[in-house]
Specification:
By secondary structure, the chain is an alpha/beta fold. The chain folds into two domains: about 220 residues, Alpha-beta prism (UDP-n-acetylglucosamine1-carboxyvinyl-transferase, Chain), CATH 3.65.10.10; about 210 residues, Enolpyruvate transferase domain (UDP-n-acetylglucosamine1-carboxyvinyl-transferase, Chain). The protein is about 30% helix and about 25% strand. Strands 17, 18, 19, 20 and 21 form a five-stranded mixed beta sheet that branches. The chain starts with a strand and ends with a strand. The chain binds uridine-diphosphate-N-acetylglucosamine and phosphoenolpyruvate. Phosphoenolpyruvate (PEP) binds next to helix 12. It catalyses: phosphoenolpyruvate + UDP-N-acetyl-alpha-D-glucosamine = UDP-N-acetyl-3-O-(1-carboxyvinyl)-alpha-D-glucosamine + phosphate.
Length: about 450
Amino acid sequence: MNDVLYVNGGTPLHGEITVRGAKNFVSKAMVAALLGEGPSVLRNVPQIRDVGVVTGLLELHGVSVTHDEAAGVLTLDPSNVESAHVADIDAHAGSSRIPILFCGPLLHRLGEAFIPDLGGCRIGDRPINYHLDILRQFGAVVEKRAQGIELRAPNGLHGTKIELPYPSVGATEQLLLTAVRADGLTELSNAAIEPEIMDLINVLQKMGAIISVDTDRVIRIEGVGRLGGYQHTALSDRIEAASWASAALATRGDVYVRGATQPEMTAFLNTFRKVGGEFEIDDDGIRFFHPGGDLRSIVLETDVHPGFMTDWQQPLVVALTQATGLSIVHETVYENRFGFTDALRGMGATIQVYRECLGGHPCRFGQRNFYHSAVISGPTPLAAADIEVPDLRGGFSHLIAALAAKGTSAVRGIQLIDRGYEHFQDKLGALGAEFSHG
Ligand SMILES: CC(=O)N[C@H]1[C@@H](OP(=O)(O)OP(=O)(O)OC[C@H]2O[C@@H](n3ccc(=O)[nH]c3=O)[C@H](O)[C@@H]2O)O[C@H](CO)[C@@H](O)[C@@H]1O
Ligand SMILES: C=C(OP(=O)(O)O)C(=O)O
């Protein structure tokens, strides 16, 4: 497949697109199916590469997966996992970080697991120390191998009390997927409470789990002996929705995102409005548009939910290059998520990155040599360029910059974008973008 997109920018995006289920939920719900005795059915599944990667891993473990791609329905039947009993897989994680979440379900079913080294976006170190600490506290024995880790649970997995040093999404999911079938009670403090985690809890409850969530980031789980399958419709992808909203703003366009939902996007909508974008919400989606006139600069900090999520940051920064004045963005979730701004600078944007915590609150990256704050001065016209996609959201940002720029840009490595944006080229076409493969 041709991995370069030639984008002829300068045309505002106009029209309607649809977003389906959230990348950051669907993959976890697929792993949850491994815990059930019977088949599960997941609806509203997007056609993105991460779904293919997790499907491949589940099949390797004996899960039978059928996918009606057009209807977005996945059926996952784990009844053959015991007979397949794959102890040591000669596999790699592909582009995804999801394999680490197989630990709990496989340990419960097979008593052992081999997890390959992880993929995912290179936006910081992304260690798995919280995951391993959690698994060890449940009673797992973890050993490092050449290309991954090997785990055993010689005495089973037992409920425990854990406080996370930081409300990590993946570590919270690790705990949930392990605790639901562990023996006894588990209590997690400082848990992440992202909407995708809440929907995973919905799925686990449908399967028979007992989970309560307090208002102070404490989650309690009473382990149960067996879980069944589930039927569930995935919540929609608020990152994809916000990305198209940012594209509408940066190109002075008007995009109706069918499937976008308000409650999961409150922090984004507030920021969008402060920058000068407008939106209209109805029962089926959200219309995002540039109302004309100047955009306003803002001070923004990314944070865990209910804050402004880090995955919204990169697409929005492109729109901020078109706002009048100095915007400050303090990235507090990942230490290295401004690499994508190099290409924007090459296109004419004025963006400086700093090691200091700018914008208000000190974060855990302050004084540690990480360029995790950015100052964007605008508005600056963007000029076409030859750019290489660095990661998923950074890649979409580059695409937005190319759409906003005068002239024809070459955007290389666009396959990375398929990992989280369903049919993005069809959607660009539907919104009137001008592009070709050469
Ligand atoms: C597939 C998926 O759902 N990915 C999302 C998930 O990633 P993911 O689950 O990997 O992100 P985490 O919330 O775990 O990471 C947050 C921070 O905690 C650190 N950390 C995490 C685990 C650990 O063991 N040790 C550690 O230090 C990370 O390096 C990072 O700085 O949540 C992120 C934060 O909303 C999103 O940007 C990603 O899109
Ligand atoms: C960082 C992201 O994803 P992942 O955790 O899958 O790398 C993302 O979706 O922006």
